[in-house]
Amino acid sequence: MAKELQGLRDKIDSVDKQMLDLLEQRLKLVEEVGEVKSEHGLPIYAPDREAAMLASRRQEAEKRGVPAQLIEDILRRVMRESYASEKDSGFKCLKPDLGDVVIIGGNGQLGGLFKKMFELSGYKVSVVGSKNWHESDSLFATAGLVVVTVPINKTESVIAKLGNLPKDCILCDFTSIKAKPLQAMMDVHAGPVVGLHPMFGPDVPSLAKQVIVHCEGRGAESYQWLLNQFAIWGASLCPMDAEQHDNGMTLIQALRHFTSFAYGLHLSKENPNIDTLLKLSSPIYRLEIAMVGRLFAQDPDLYGDIILSSEQNVEMIKRFHARFGEALALLDNHDKTAFVEQFNAVSGWFGDYSQQFMSESQNLLKQANDSIQRS
């Protein structure tokens, strides 16, 4: 039996090596595709092409008796690597006569990411920070685009110093709140203004499929090329009113981060053994505890600034606290009937999204389970 099993394993190893050869060939072809896209100014992410390719491969897999989801999982992982390698070919510069790109806070992680992206597109980039602010006037004098990417609590005070920009210079910010910074930019600068919020962190391997929200300020025709440049980098652009954006961020960022903070605080006070929790964890709980733990691996000042950036955030968190208390009252009363009624009411509010989220989460949980190494 051992000899027979080893023979089969040797054949599997041989097939795996063939797969490696094919992956190597595919990545080399992707490099060539990247060069063509760079030359012609095509975005690295083409959603229609990706959808059509995946649908075709799923059909081919089913004909061969191979699970369609298997080939899709493999190809999506390969494509993620492909998008990361395509950017190494650089990108077409859509505004070669722009002047300098000046990033205020470009030494930070997010500023550094965009500095790299602009440089890959052939723009001349300068960085302004607290250590070289004395040079800012000379740097701003030749600027065609000024990007403000500093901590939330410093954004408006930094913007207030930008009254000497060239009239045709585009002024934008990357702050996770939009209404107040956008108004501050409009007040200080008479030229083109746009509020931007990259909905991702600085550790993304590429901008493919990453969302950038843009809130119109002034002179959209003058900064449209910038949005097009983001699209070439692979980003998905989301136009939105600044107030609508901030209302959404109250739930998506402030409330979410605070509940993770509160859960992490609770865990630390209960002081369980984390290794034991992980051994007992289903994939979904492992994901949940990972997302909570992830928060505490990052900058507490950043998350404090996000949560405390507006009174609207605080009021939302207070309403959540009150509703948590209402839900807790069901347990105090041992009222399962009321619990089920409330559960069904919330299910009705989610509507068809419940099944959509069920399907999406099942795929995520499969991937999470695959990554776990059990002893």
Entry summary:
With 375 residues, this protein is of the alpha/beta class. Helices cover 63% and strands 10% of the residues.
Report what the structure shows.
In the C-terminal section; belongs to the prephenate/arogenate dehydrogenase family. Residues 99-361 form the Prephenate/arogenate dehydrogenase domain. One of its GO terms (cellular component) is cytoplasm. It comes from Vibrio breoganii. It catalyses: prephenate + NAD(+) = 3-(4-hydroxyphenyl)pyruvate + CO2 + NADH; chorismate = prephenate. There is one protein chain. The chain is built from 15 helices and seven strands. The chain has helices at 2-40, 47-63, 68-86, 109-120, 136-141, 152-159, 179-188, 220-232, 242-270, 274-280, 283-295, 300-307, 311-332, 336-350, 353-371; strands spanning 100-104, 125-128, 143-148, 170-173, 193-198, 211-218, 236-239. It is globular, with a radius of gyration of 25 Å. Helices cover 63% and strands 10% of the residues. The model has no long low-confidence stretch (mean pLDDT 93). Helix 1 (2-40) crosses helix 3 and helix 11 (283-295) packs across helix 15. Strands 2-1-3-4-5-6-7 form a seven-stranded mixed sheet, sandwiched between helices. The chain is an alpha/beta fold. The two termini are 25 Å apart.
Strand order of the largest sheet: 2-1-3-4-5-6-7
| Percentage of residues in strands | 5-15%
What general form does the structure show? globular
Number of helices: 15
Q: What is the number of strand segments? A: 7
* Helix amount: 55-70%
What class would the helix/strand composition place it in?
Answer: alpha/beta
Low-confidence stretches: none
Domain Prephenate/arogenate dehydrogenase: 99-361
Pfam families: CM_2, PDH_C, PDH_N
Subcellular location: Cytoplasm
GO biological process, one term: tyrosine biosynthetic process
